[in-house]
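Morning!

This is the sequence you dropped in the shared folder:
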Amino acid sequence: MIFSTTYPPKSSRPAMGGYRYFFNGQEADNEVFGEGAFHAFEYRMHDTRIGRFWSVDPLAGKFPWWSTYQFAGLMPTWYRELEGLEPNYNGSYNGQGAHAPILDENNNPLPNTENQAWIWNNSTWNKAEVAVVYETMKSIFTRANPRYLKNVEIAINLHGSSFGLDSYESICHFLSQVGHESQGFTKVEESFNYSVAGLVSTFSKYFYVGTPVEGKKDAALYGRTTGQSAKEEEIANIVYGNRMDNGAKEGYLYRGRGLLQLTGKSAYRGFTEYINSTFTNNTDDFVKSPELVKTDQYMVLSAMWFFKKHVVDKIDVNNASVREVTKIINGGYNGLEDRESKYEQLKSILK
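The structure's back. Tokens below.
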């Protein structure tokens, strides 16, 4: 309805006069390209035929993570446009985070409350100790999938405390680690589309190239080449088979999913038990339906469970270094500089 047609459809309009105001409550300018094709926002014009504005957002310099021509953050079901300026949330869903001052009875901001955290839940704004805000994360993880960040905002704001994410330090550690592991909130499922060289580099314990090595597989038979696609399922079964409670051919079935790549049948079983004991009436079984872990509902909860189990329950996360947390999550220190940078950025703007 936004991009190629007018709204409401002509057949549903009153016989006399028609509608003057259209999508997003803005006035239609029918003299330019016909009825309903052009909407006059205060600061710029929106062309419904192509679904974008004709001019740059006047506040583009303040929001570098948005395209200068996008409409409603490319998510019109979640966002609205305020007079053709930057996207704004409409506060219609539970889990939205915000920072805003507390107002007195005359709607004047109280001193020293400009950074008060708020969470929208049960149809009202609630004061909170910590609130994760979509725009904050987007300013740091600029390439992130908007839907993934929205899921993160909702999950942490509504359920973070159940997983030990109830302080600035714990949330900053979680976001910096998950952001790196998910390649900037862009990946929720493990890929085994390795080239021959990449296969040996990543899984040298299981594959060789060139001279045969006893106990290892020839990477040239499994990795991606010019004339061959990677044999992803077979690779996963070699790497993960007969480990983590997986059967010999279950490695691919229980490959990494979710924002922290939940891996192995034992982890899928543990996540199932925790979720069903924590959330009343939840009966989802991730062993029987492992693909659920990468869905909107569970991509963040699975990462929060893993972080709780391996970090929050094992160390004092509020006083831990990024290096210490990275060792637990990564098994080494890959990407430590990026994780440390993201952690410091988050700490500076979440408060």
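Headline: The longest strand covers residues 117-121.

More detail when I'm at my desk.
O.
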